Amino acid sequence: MSHPSHDLINNHEKAADEGDAVAPVSEAAAEQSVEHRDEQAQQERRERIRDEEEQREEQEEERYYEEGIALAEVTSEPPVERREQPPAAAAPPAEALPPLSAWGTRLYTVSYLIFFAIWGTLARLGVQALTTYPGAPVLTSVLWANVGGCILMGFFIEDRNIFREEWGRPVEDATKLQSGQQQPRRQSSTPSAQERWLKKHKTVKKSIPLYIGLTTGFCGSFTSFSSFMRDAFLALSDDLADPSILSTTGSLTVGRAKGDSFMAVVAVLAVTVAMSIAAFYLGGHLALALDSLTPTIPFRFTRKVLDPLVVLLGWGCWLGAVFMAIWPPHNAWRTNAVFAIVFAPLGCLFRFYMSLALNARIPVFPLGTFAVNIIGTGVLGMCYDLQHVAGIGAPLSSWAFDPLASPTRGSIFPSTTAELEATARSILVSCQVLQGVMDGFCGATTTISTWVAELTSIGLGTSRRRRFAWAYLYAAVSMGVGLGLLVVVMGSVRWSRGFDKPYC
Length: 504
Fold this sequence. Notes:
Elements: H1 4-66, H2 102-130, H3 143-158, H4 191-205, H5 209-222, H6 225-236, H7 258-289, H8 299-326, H9 331-358, H10 367-387, H11 409-412, H12 418-445, H13 449-457, H14 464-489, H15 491-494
Helix pairs in contact: 2-3, 2-5, 2-8, 2-9, 2-12, 3-5, 3-7, 3-13, 5-12, 6-7, 6-10, 6-14, 7-13, 8-9, 9-10, 9-12, 10-12, 10-14, 13-14
Family: Belongs to the fluoride channel Fluc/FEX (TC 1.A.43) family.
GO cellular component, one term: plasma membrane
Transmembrane segments: 107-126, 138-157, 208-229, 262-284, 305-327, 333-353, 471-493
């Protein structure tokens, strides 16, 4: 038996339920479609803006490489007035520092270069003394200094924390959320954004005086291209000293066949270049591995404390070295270090300004670094010749004694005259000055660390094949011209009259 009233009620409730079920779903679907279209439009707009920004940055990068902007630390733009952006709105205006004038920037940059050139030269001489010992497996005394300087150079170039505050501007390192909130400093967003920030950061920090001092000043003076070329020539001429050999004739080498000299110079070139490049990459890897432990130097501390302090220390140390060269506590100090640190700042400043003037002219061939390496190598070759010529830097062959061997020489050598004693002292001083020019001026003028940094970054923005071609060409021309120049300058003396033992 059917119940019409009951069925009517059920049908009505079912219709109501269906109406309640269908109507909201259709409305929600319609509203969701509108929201979806809005979100899609916003997403497309954001993507279009991002694409335009990336295209604009790519165009700027292309112009960056076409105009020949810096390839390494010494090719940064000349120090000019930097105007720091005002701090974030939340920061009080009192925290802002006045902009640094162009004159002040140049003063701080030169002071850092002087200070670190002195200590870089001392570090190189110290490493050479530590690694020269009987039985040393590597006879090129400057190898380990070049390796150490390249490690530091790679570290400073890849580091992203020490100079994070840059010129006091708020740091934007591509670690922002879409909502605009800042994430912790070492979290990254998209790789492209992080890469853009890194490129910008590396470019900006090349204009910071402290960074220039650490890279151009210390690393550039710690390493030496001219000493590397000198050791290559001495290996070729069979004059590379071996401290394991004891000889009464003054020679510290063992004669070898002429064909073996070719293998010797190839070994010096290959080992030095390979180890220097490996050390440079090791320094970069260390910077990335120690990223979470590397501190940031506060900009206010740098501006208020470090910069003025280095002005006093840089010029004061240089003036003190000059006084010590005139009145040395011990005469041997002149040979070992004093004259070297007197001439080192001159070489470092010469390299810095030559690189600024010439490096950007040929983007794929750093002409400034090439010029200072060749000039310094040539000067070292001439000084080495003079130091090993009797009567200039070596004692005369007619002397049967050393008039400076003992303070009681008057009783040991009764025939020694005052004129002979004065001649011996002048030869000793000239030998010491020539040694100082080679270790100081030539060592700080030429650099391996910058040279290696340029080899690894040359031709950026071009194809990989062209990059490698330019890098190999730059390396081959630098070593070929440097060694060829020493063959002419030093070889003309070595293979004509021979080298005499220097007096210092």
